[in-house]
Design a protein that fits this description.
The chain is α+β, with helices and mostly antiparallel strands. It is built from eleven helices and 23 strands. The strands form six sheets. Strands 13, 14, 15, 16, 17, 18, 19 and 23 form an eight-stranded antiparallel sheet that branches. It has a four-stranded antiparallel sheet with strand order 2-3-4-9, with no helix packed on it.
């Protein structure tokens, strides 16, 4: 459990908060590229408790600026996109992507007052379907060489979803290897469902049986947690007998992303991003090593489960996540359908908007969560003590980060540590774009 003070420290991320200062030192997803309509590429964004407007100017440059005009506070989300920037409809003030005020047409001719006005503005980068923003001080760090960033666009697919809870309880669900044996348990491995859940039931490399069956039948994993330059490597080992072990490698990419294997060829990198302290987004980039992805099909599968333009789950708190007691008795552990995103949404939202960690009791299977909280608290405190100094935490130096490796396979019990690395190396050698990691 955490003390009340520490729980406040890790969950509050608005302007001026210690955790918010840390998250702002890293590139954060701000929107999907698809949200910037070609007809009007302007989008209101709430990120880390700040109200902002994302736009693309006539030259294709991205800008992320404060939503309220610094003149009289009018909403710039309704501004005119013209003349190299976004123009406030109240008095015509024009702002470019860097937040510079270019024009104040109602001021006296020859006035240079506009040169004194600088609006809130953050640098942006578009990568494989997501617009990332840097909200921190100074020069933005380089983007790390994550596989999901390095992969050619045709090998990737991006999506997002809305959560009615704090960012941290959502992230912690992703670094909990034990929950898949229960929360995502299916009583019939052949049950048809959406693509994401269906891939969860595809055969594991070297096993000839799906992950859902392994997780269901071998529900006491041995968990190992290793520090890495990017954060943490989490290994869940399930002994299968006959000299075999199931190895699943998941990664915590500090401070708020995870990389998870989804079948033999695909990996998801997922960010958990605060909207404010009680709401968050998850952003996914799926990437394939061997073949281009079918983006249209993947998007169609997601839209069966999420609504637009708000990216809210169709099964949600308001309709009890589609809970069916008969299904729970005979078909799934939760009774909430066959998509694992729905299960995760329920588990992450049900503790309430901000989970009270003073009341929890962590066990052996929570080793990764304990290690991550230790890392997070240390980084927050170091930055608070010396806000101008470089913070020695994973991920700040993007040049040190590659991969990471996320795999799911069955290996010999006496050689599993070598086999999962060899499996990844072979996968990369067979890939048209990926290169082996050292």
């Amino acid at each position: 459990m955490l003390s009340r003070e520490d729980n406040e420290l890790v969950t509050r991320t608005g302007p001026g908060t210690p955790a918010g200062a840390l998250l702002r030192r890293f590139w954060q997803p701000a929107a999907l590229v698809e949200e910037l309509s070609p007809r009007r590429p302007v989008k209101a964004v709430r990120l880390l408790g700040e109200d902002l407007v994302l736009f693309r100017d006539e030259q294709g440059r991205l800008g992320l600026i404060g939503r309220r005009c610094p003149h009289r506070g009018t909403d710039l989300a309704f501004g005119r996109l013209e003349d190299g920037g976004l123009r406030c409809v109240y008095h015509g003030w024009l702002f470019d992507v860097a937040g510079r005020c270019r024009e104040q047409p109602a001021e006296p001719e020859g006035s240079r007052f506009h040169e004194k006005v600088r609006h809130v503005a953050y640098p942006c980068r578009e990568v494989n379907g997501i617009v990332f923003a840097y909200l921190g001080p100074g020069t933005p760090p380089p983007l790390p060489a994550l596989d999901c960033f390095v992969a050619p666009p045709e090998y990737t697919f991006a999506f997002k979803g809305y959560l009615e809870c704090n960012w941290l309880q959502a992230l912690e669900g992703g670094i909990d290897p034990a929950h898949v044996s229960f929360l995502h348990r299916f009583f019939d491995d052949d049950e048809p469902a959406g693509r994401y859940g269906k891939q969860f039931r595809e055969d594991v490399a070297g096993a000839g049986v799906p992950l859902s069956r392994i997780a269901r039948e071998y529900f006491r994993p041995r968990i190992e947690v290793e520090p890495t330059p990017y954060g943490l490597r989490i290994l869940a080992l399930r002994g299968l007998g006959a000299g075999r072990v199931h190895v699943r490698v998941t990664n915590l990419v500090f401070p708020n992303a995870i990389a998870i294997s989804l079948g033999d060829d695909m990996v998801i990198t997922q960010w958990h991003v605060p909207i404010d302290d009680e709401h968050s987004w998850w952003y996914d980039i799926f990437h394939s090593y061997r073949a281009p992805v079918d983006r249209e099909t993947m998007r169609r599968d997601r839209l069966e489960l999420y609504t637009l333009p708000d990216y809210r789950p169709r099964r949600n708190r308001a309709n009890d996540y589609g809970y069916d007691p008969e299904e729970q008795r005979t078909r799934t552990y939760t009774g909430m359908g066959f998509d694992i995103n729905t299960h995760d949404t329920f588990a992450q939202e049900s503790p309430g908007p901000i989970h009270d960690r003073t009341r929890e009791h962590l066990g052996y299977t929570d080793r990764a969560i304990t290690a991550y909280r230790t890392l997070l608290l240390r980084a927050i405190r170091e930055l608070a003590r010396a806000p101008e100094a470089p913070v020695d935490v994973p991920g700040l130096d993007g040049s040190r980060i590659a991969g990471p490796i996320a795999v799911d396979l069955v290996a010999p019990e006496d050689a599993w540590a070598e086999r999962w690395r060899a499996h990844d190396r072979a996968r990369r050698l067979a890939s048209p774009w990926a290169t082996p990691l050292e």
